[in-house]
Design a protein that fits this description.
With 715 residues, this protein is an alpha/beta fold. It is 37% helix and 11% strand. It is built from 22 helices and 15 strands. The protein has a seven-stranded mixed sheet, sandwiched between helices. A two-stranded antiparallel sheet has the order 4-5. It has a two-stranded antiparallel ribbon with strand order 10-11. The longest helix is centred in the middle third of the chain and has 32 residues. The protein is elongated and about 95 Å long.
């Protein structure tokens, strides 16, 4: 019989002496020798050894944290981690549910980011063996653990441990810090409560996170370690974070709590814990809306090495040191002011007398009194816009998930790069900058563009744009009001979880944060459409790639459609349509497809008509497939609107009568005559005559009258 206490003490001594275990089998063999018994994998005895190893590691780590500090602690914990064996292999379900302890270097990093010190009061809802608490004073900790065996192991370290379900448990007081690494994943057949979401969530880590944060003081701190996303490409990661339950969770979290940092740790850094699933580490600074973009907009950076995490810790420690030095300096000044024999005045340094102290600049202030948002002493351009503007330190993460990010703390105003300003990311309905007027139900943009559109200064052979195009509506989900209408605010999440309209209200609020103004690449006119924020950056990247391949977007589309000038094209196509056409032409040239998912009223008809013209000019025979016969009329009018009115189409419907707006009436024959006509058309070369007005120069006179290529257009 293996004595848990004895074997744990043995492993503590072994690790403290510098021992390295190449595998868990070595630890089992040493245990077998001590107790003169066999330790067979998969048996209760093997499980005891595994648990003793985990507990001994935490105890050694606690000693290291108590006797060292800062990077020295991290380095020693990393050395300890590298000397430990790979712990028991778990099933795929256990891996996804994170049923294992936090790797010690990561646990210490989380503790440092949370700001845990000996005097800090801490709540840990799923404490396990206590790895996240190695820097905490057990007397100041509320540690909960449902598993009885692990709860007992915590008690051996001096913690008082209740054994409750973390989904519903709350301690009887608020704490300075909440830190948690809950099991994560979907619990089959069960749903958990989430604030403001009537249907709740199936993800247990989401439920535990929100429940545990109720125990944090309003100005407290928290670190959550949650299941991450295995995708590594930026676009794929954005899609993963945009999944319904994930999107809802992070929207609620970022709305209610001040998320200061959010990054991913690669699963390989968890390898010795018996799993390799990536984790997300989220740092929270008190209650209140976060200033960071949602992870579906800019996915969290991925840290792939312990060296990168060490640099992350170094940055945090430097920040703490600077804040402490500033605090000490302020305290010194306060002490000086209390002295009755001296007078401290804030004055211009150029006019200081020898008895006056000089002006003491803040750590982010320049000598001219301007805030130094870049922190480089050079000042830089400031942008005072929406509170959700993307921080400068996040811009590279969008193009490189592994690019370095320096977290600089929360600010109400952030410096934005020119790239970010061009994208318009972060601006939501009601948050537009001055001069960018916008109507949710109309097409109003800036005053300059509005005058341009209304004056009809850009015309075509058919005059100004048809009324139905000029009134194009913004690309937004139906029934989503402006944030200023009906008193709807981002924080107006319904309080009554029994309200059946709760989810609809929440979705409307979320959507306002999930859409951003679209920034066309074309120089043509824009009706002021919106785009999902998680697609804004990929769209710009696709347009940039198209520009690199084909040159100027407007020139590319203009020549493909045969327009004589940009002005002629601008008169019949909006900038958004020109952008979409450029991407579609590029895809077609590479033998790929392009799907236009614009919402109703954004001009998909003219987009389709332009593709028909381009297909014919490229030597294809376009085939237009539509849902209802009345859309034949719409497509013909769209073709006319873009300057190609003289079209002779062939309709496959029988007995069809199509009355056009110009008075023309098109008719088709009965079933027999239509069948006969189609048999005739099927003969090589016959189909071309039906679009003869767009027939390019006769370059396709191929030997044997080979069948023409077909270009399909769906609407």
């Amino acid at each position: 019989m293996i004595d848990r206490e004895i074997i744990t003490t043995y492993f503590v001594e072994r690790f403290q002496s510098g021992a390295t275990f190449a595998s868990i089998s070595q630890a089992r063999q040493e245990t077998a020798q001590i107790f003169d018994t066999k330790v067979v994998p998969g048996t209760p005895e093997a499980k005891v050894v595994d648990e003793a190893i985990e507990l001994s590691l935490v105890k050694v780590a606690r000693t290291i944290a108590a006797t060292t500090g800062g990077l020295e602690t991290y380095d020693q914990l990393l050395n300890l981690y590298e000397r430990q064996p790979i712990l028991g292999v778990r099933s795929s379900t256990s891996i996804r549910q994170q049923a294992y302890s936090t790797a010690l270097p990561i646990a210490y990093l989380a503790s440092a980011l949370a700001g845990i010190e000996q005097q800090t009061t801490v709540f840990e809802p799923t404490a396990g063996n206590g790895s996240l608490l190695i820097a905490a004073n057990p007397f100041n900790v509320s540690a909960n653990e449902l598993n009885a065996q692990r709860a007992n192991q915590l008690r051996t370290q001096g913690f008082t441990v209740p054994e409750h379900d973390a989904v519903t448990y709350l301690p009887d007081r608020l704490h300075d810090v909440v830190i948690a690494n809950p099991p994560f994943g979907r619990v089959r057949g069960k749903r958990f409560d989430l604030p403001g979401i009537a249907r709740g969530t199936s993800q247990i880590d989401q439920a535990i996170s929100f429940q545990s944060l109720k125990a944090m003081k309003a100005d407290g701190r928290a670190v959550l370690i949650l299941g991450g996303k295995p995708e590594t490409e930026v676009a794929q990661r954005a899609d993963a974070y945009n999944a319904l339950e994930t999107r809802r969770f992070f929207y609620l979290l970022y709305q209610k709590y001040g998320v200061e940092d959010h990054f991913t740790i690669a699963g390989d850094l968890y390898r010795k814990q018996g799993a390799s699933w990536p984790i997300d580490l989220i740092v929270i600074g008190g209650e209140g809306k976060s200033q960071r973009p949602l992870p579906a907009v800019i996915p969290p950076r991925i840290y792939i090495s312990f060296e990168e995490l060490r640099e992350k810790l170094r940055g945090k420690l430097n920040e703490i040191t600077q804040l402490q030095e500033l605090s000490d300096l302020q305290q010194s000044l306060a002490t000086d002011r209390d002295r009755p024999s001296e007078s401290v005045r804030r004055t211009d340094t150029a006019r200081c007398t020898e008895n006056d102290p000089p002006i003491l600049l803040g750590s982010d202030e320049l000598p001219n009194g301007v805030d130094d948002f870049a922190g480089d002493g050079a000042g830089g351009n400031l942008s005072i816009g929406a509170a959700s503007a993307i921080p400068r330190d996040l811009k590279s993460a969008a193009s490189d998930a592994r690019s370095p990010i320096a977290v600089r703390g929360r600010r109400e105003r952030r410096r934005r790069s020119s790239d970010e300003a061009d994208l318009g990311l972060g601006f939501r309905l009601g948050d537009e900058p001055p001069g960018a007027e916008r109507q949710v139900d109309g097409a109003t943009t800036s005053p300059e563009r509005r005058r341009d559109v209304s004056s009809g200064s850009i015309s075509s052979s058919r005059g100004s744009l048809p009324e139905r195009s000029r009134t194009a509506r913004l690309s937004r989900p139906p029934n989503i009001p402006d944030r200023t209408q009906n008193g709807l605010k981002p924080d107006s999440t319904a309080q009554d979880e029994q309200n059946p309209s709760q989810d609809a209200t929440q979705e409307r609020v979320m959507a306002q944060d999930l859409y951003a103004p679209y920034k066309p690449k074309s120089q043509g006119r824009s009706p002021g459409t919106l785009i999902p924020t998680n697609l804004a950056l990929p769209a710009q990247q696709a347009l940039d790639a198209c520009t690199r391949s084909h040159g100027d977007i407007d020139e590319f589309v203009m020549h493909r459609l045969g327009y004589g000038s940009r002005e002629q094209m601008y008169g019949v196509l909006y900038a958004e349509q020109i952008d979409a056409l450029a991407l579609a032409f590029d895809q077609k040239d590479r033998g790929k497809i392009f799907l236009n998912g614009d919402q109703t009223g954004n001009g998909k008809g003219r987009f389709g008509a332009a593709n028909i013209i381009d297909a014919k000019r490229q030597g294809y025979i376009p085939v237009f497939v539509t849902q209802k016969p009345n859309l034949y009329k719409s497509m013909l009018e769209d073709l006319a609107d873009i300057g190609f009115a003289d079209i002779q189409p062939f309709f496959t419907n029988n007995n069809e009568r199509i009355a056009l707006s110009n008075g023309r009436v098109l008719r088709t024959g009965n079933a027999a005559s239509q069948a006969e006509e189609m048999r005739a058309i099927a003969q090589p070369g016959r189909l071309r005559c039906y679009l003869h007005n767009l027939q390019p120069a006769p370059k396709r006179q191929q030997k044997g009258h080979a069948a023409p290529r077909i270009s399909k257009s769906y609407r």
